[in-house]
């Protein structure tokens, strides 16, 4: 109170004195619950009272604790986007595939009134996903890639429905997955190389994750059907700091034995083109290369990259739609998109 007993002197010019809703309630002469409702635009409080409380809050620079409010209503308006890297601990979020899908997911999440919390996880145990979904900070979770964590994802999906995963769908799995038919995509890549006249094909990529294993299987089966030797599988990490050296070592070891490369990703295909250019090998005259993804960079490089397209923008929309449905309590099944061969200059 001021010297004259007025309430204004207690708060008047000292806007920093309004530290919480209780202070604002004393200033306005109403209950704390009324202040809370007014700041939340509740129709339970008259418009005149809401306007008065908001005006005083603005005058004193008071902003309510949004996180506390969200905890009270048991909603965070926050979606977690998680990138598990159990199979490839050195891979970075700056990878062009991650950047592409993250951009589309961020657009979809924020357009629906949610904030986004991004986590890059290198699993050190089997409880990493439990820690995320049980944190109380998220209304739902989007997982980019199954990595080598399929068992962990399946176990969590059995009890937590507000989760959607970018990856491969197998019959009978619990978790909702959105992705391309990777096996068919591998067949398309193998078929293109064989039609180009390739008879000694290499598959560049690891086969430790479900997506890449299916891509390799598709190339392998297409070769078998066309009477071509099984593809030579060359482990190639997705980590950018070792990819060039690995591809160079592969070429130096077996380059004379292959005339076509089915790359597990566009990034691997792009690095292969670079390695071959540094060695004076012409693409596609000396060797044909097919990528997988159809990232924006695929049509900007030289030679432009022939690749298997998975519609990342459509997939991101499907992930967001499925997660919102699950948050609302509805069912949302997996989505399997058809791959498309995009023929350009490299094969």
Automatic annotation (TrEMBL):
Gene3D superfamilies noted in UniProt: 3.40.50.2300, lambda repressor-like DNA-binding domains
Signal peptide: none
Gene Ontology MF, one: transcription cis-regulatory region binding
Taxonomic superkingdom: Bacteria
The species this protein was found in: Sphingomonas adhaesiva
This protein's UniProt keywords: DNA-binding, Transcription, Transcription regulation
Protein's recorded name: LacI family transcriptional regulator
PROSITE patterns to which the protein is assigned, alphabetical: HTH_LACI_2 (PS50932)
Entry keyword annotation includes Plastid: no
Keyword Transcription in record: yes
Domain HTH lacI-type: from-to ranges: 19-73
């Amino acid at each position: 109170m001021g010297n004259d007993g007025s309430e204004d002197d207690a708060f008047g010019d000292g806007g920093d004195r309004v530290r919480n809703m209780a202070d604002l309630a004393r200033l306005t002469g109403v209950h704390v619950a009324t202040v809370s409702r007014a700041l939340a635009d509740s129709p339970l409080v008259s418009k005149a009272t809401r306007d008065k409380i908001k005006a005083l809050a603005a005058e004193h620079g008071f902003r309510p604790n949004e996180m506390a409010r969200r905890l009270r209503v048991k909603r965070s308006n926050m979606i977690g986007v998680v990138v598990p890297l159990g199979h490839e601990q050195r891979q970075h979020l700056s990878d062009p595939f991650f950047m592409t899908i993250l951009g589309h997911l961020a657009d979809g999440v924020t357009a629906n009134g949610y904030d986004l919390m991004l986590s890059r996880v290198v699993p050190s145990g089997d409880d990493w996903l439990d820690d995320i979904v049980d944190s109380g900070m998220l209304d739902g979770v989007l997982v980019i890639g199954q990595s080598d964590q399929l068992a962990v994802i399946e176990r969590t999906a059995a009890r937590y429905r507000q989760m959607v995963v970018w990856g491969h769908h197998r019959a009978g799995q619990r978790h909702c997955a959105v992705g391309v038919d990777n096996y068919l995509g591998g067949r398309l890549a193998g078929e293109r190389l064989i039609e180009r006249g390739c008879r000694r094909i290499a598959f560049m990529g690891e086969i430790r994750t479900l997506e890449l294993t299916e891509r390799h299987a598709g190339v392998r089966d297409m070769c078998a059907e066309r009477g071509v030797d099984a593809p030579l599988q060359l482990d190639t990490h997705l980590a950018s700091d070792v990819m060039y050296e690995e591809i160079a070592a592969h070429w130096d070891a077996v380059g004379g034995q292959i005339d076509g490369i089915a790359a597990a990703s566009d990034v691997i295909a792009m690095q292969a083109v670079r390695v071959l250019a540094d060695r004076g090998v012409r693409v596609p005259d000396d060797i044909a290369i097919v990528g997988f993804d159809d990232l924006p960079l695929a049509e900007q490089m030289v030679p432009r990259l022939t690749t298997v397209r998975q519609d990342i923008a459509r997939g991101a929309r499907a992930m967001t739609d499925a997660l919102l449905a699950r948050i609302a309590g509805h069912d949302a099944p997996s989505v399997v998109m058809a791959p498309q061969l995009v023929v350009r200059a490299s094969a």
